[in-house]
Amino acid sequence: MNPTQNLMIMLVLILCMSQSLVTYSIMNRCRVHVINGFSTNETLEAHCKSKDDDLGLHHIPVHGEFQWKFRTDFFSRTRFSCHMWWSGGQKTLDVFWVDDKFIENECGGGNCRWRSQNDGIYLYSFVHKQYRFKYKWDPWHS
């Protein structure tokens, strides 16, 4: 084989191995929702960011939400985290990361819904069609 053929074979292999990377980064838009589900008139404070994007501080009223949409990067390194707090506690957590099971089963193909409640933070499970407990509020630690 000549060097050009070797290069072509390597390129084809790389493209085949990165098929899911290409699918998520080019074809799909993802969306994250942070929903205030407190039963009291409590504002949820949320500061969300990724390595490349700081989405700023948001004051989410009861039954309100903050949401954003994006495309993942080609190498599947996209990860968003949020620091959330209110008068009864705080938590810092990852709200989106590229993982086939997480995106399809929990986020329903890239539409992640996180909801605060009086006792913790819940993620809507697309598979189970209900909010499922993920994180307990901790008044002293994030």
UniProtKB/TrEMBL annotation:
It comes from the Eukaryota. Keywords: Membrane, Secreted, Self-incompatibility, Signal, Transmembrane, Transmembrane helix. The chain crosses the membrane at residues 7-27. GO terms for cellular component: extracellular region. GO terms for biological process: rejection of self pollen. Its main location: secreted. It is found in: Secreted. InterPro entries: Self-incomp_S1. Belongs to the plant self-incompatibility (S1) protein family. This is S-protein homolog.
